[in-house]
Amino acid sequence: MNGYAAICYNRLAMPGIERSFRRAIGRHSPTTNAIMKKSRPFLPVVYPLLVGIAFAQAAPGVPKSSPAKGVKKAAAGGLDWHDVTKWGVEGRILPDQKRLHWFDRLPAQAEKTVTPAVWNLSRDSAGMMVRFKTDATAIGVHYKLGKKQLDMPHMPASGVSGVDLYARDAEGKWKWVMVTKPDAQEVKAEIIKGLAPGEREYAAYLPLYNGVEFLSIGVPKGSRFAGLPPREKPLVFYGTSITHGACASRPGMVHTAILGRRFDMPVVNLGFSGNGKMDGAVGDFLTQIDAAAYVIDCLPNMGPAEVTAKCAPLVKQIRAARPDRPIVLVEDRRNTNSWILPARDKHHTENHAALKAAYTALQKEGVKNLYYIPGDNLYGNDADGATDASHASDLGFMRQADAFEPVIRQALGR
User: How does residue 22 score in pLDDT terms, banded at 50, 70 and 90?
Assistant: First the structure.
């Protein structure tokens, strides 16, 4: 080692190497001190190798393996795969109409009638869920995502692009099992193994803010497997980014999905981020769905004048096609920091007043089976229910489900 290298080593490398070594075997125990004293003369010999390894690990573009990703590719290779399009998914409306991609939320004809923003957002698989029954002790998924961006600054990849698995327990109650944590556009992974013996029903929720090109469920060879067809008469939600699923940590934690499990009913999620505006063009598709109930939750993307202009026409549009189906109107949640932002709080108050006025007028006109959910406490009253003041956290979604449930239960006559 030349003089310059020796200086660099003694001043820069040696302290770092010793610190790492001590972390590995114990910082300042007598044994550690003895080992360091005897091994110090030999460290210069391995120093170039250690530097090379350090640079290789730090080099940009070199992927590091992470146990947190939860991808078990080797195990996934030994499974039998079942294409979910062979039996269908819930949340995919009007399945007999032509689509550009199988997992689009809206049929192909919508491209000509809805806004470009709504059309592009309809390519996300938000709200879709596939059910199946199996006695497998391991379950895998193989799917390809439509977009390369797997996450967002305020929402993890498990929510944006993950597949979220639930199962019924012995009492028939839906309980969470596992979610994928995608780190690539194509995922082929064993979600979970070591499952308790026995045949049970499963539900896999599809990504919220990404599209799906294909999806198959994998089970070990010899396992019993049956796809379960979509159930009829869904709860239909039309709304904004919150309905769309921002910012749930996983697809099964959106309030629409939570309510689907609580009522044990299929759900259609027509949330369009930033673009839930009570549009009649979207209403044209709502009216084609044989829904158990319609939940209109668009106020977070609207102002009072828009609410006044568009609420009654949308309700009447649905009522003309579906005379007896319940329609639930939802006020916008208050941003969780609006308590300290007077202008924002005023906006919510005026929005609420506009919706309440429209609701009252519709009732006076004789519109029946109309229900109302106030917005002041949709996220709770402690300011902790949102990720970024506007979009719900998992806590906020659970609180929304709690607020929606009694009104929807009344609407359904349950």
Answer: very low
